[in-house]
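Final report, Chapter 2: Outcomes

The project's central promise was a pipeline that accepts a single protein chain and returns its three-dimensional structure in a standardized token representation, suitable for archiving and comparison. That pipeline is now operational. To close this chapter, we reproduce one record exactly as it appears in the project archive, with the input sequence first and the structure output second.
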Amino acid sequence: MENAGIADLWHRVTGAQPDPPWWLVILVGLTALAAVLHGPTWRVARNTITIAHEGGHAIAALVTGRKLDGIKLHSDTSGVTVSRGKPHGPGMIFTALAGYLAPPLLGLFFALLLAGGRITLMLWFSLALLAAMLIMIRNAYGVLSVVGTGAVIFAVSWFGGATLRAGFAYLAAWFLLLAAARPVVELQRMRSRHMAPSSDADQLAHLTGVPGLAWVGLFAAVALGSLLAGAALLAPDAPSLSELPKPPGF
């Protein structure tokens, strides 16, 4: 019975689900775009981008052999990831580089999973990333942000119906893809006003000798490229005439 239960859970998590209706994909895409463009909503939703950003720094630090001391997330949607190791060299470069690349690449990965019908797998993969990140959080607001985000994802994935799960998963992927460029624009705006002397781009300039503006350009190119590729994966097939709403009397 126990093996059967584990097998059922594994199938539930890794199995493919039917594609959501075309109108739902478009609706949640427009909702994600509105969340990025609407200032008050963005100030709240940006916390998820910060989680992905700092998670990218953390993963890069671990992969390159640096010692990860901890992650802090703040209520102003800023964050900091502290790692130890050589203050120069490839490990430090990749760690600094990973922050702005993580949200668009994660969104693109989610789009790949959703294109294959792996809706539940995408949600549970998100939970696994948040659980791993929670271990390294070092402040109360960070714990609240990660636990709160994970609780919402778990509730939707475990208790929600097929339409709710699909809508939420597509909303998350669209949001990561659409939102990834806005922090890059904000970064360059702050750099132009000399308000971010220790930004990731300026750290990379110090580490490599390549101008900070070039790194901002790279961040923007990855965000745009991921959005175009992800949108192609997420875009629904053109609805047939039978699926379109019909006027009264037909």
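Archive annotation: The CA atoms of residues 177 and 227 lie 5 Å apart.
This record, like all others produced under the grant, will remain available to the consortium after the project formally closes.
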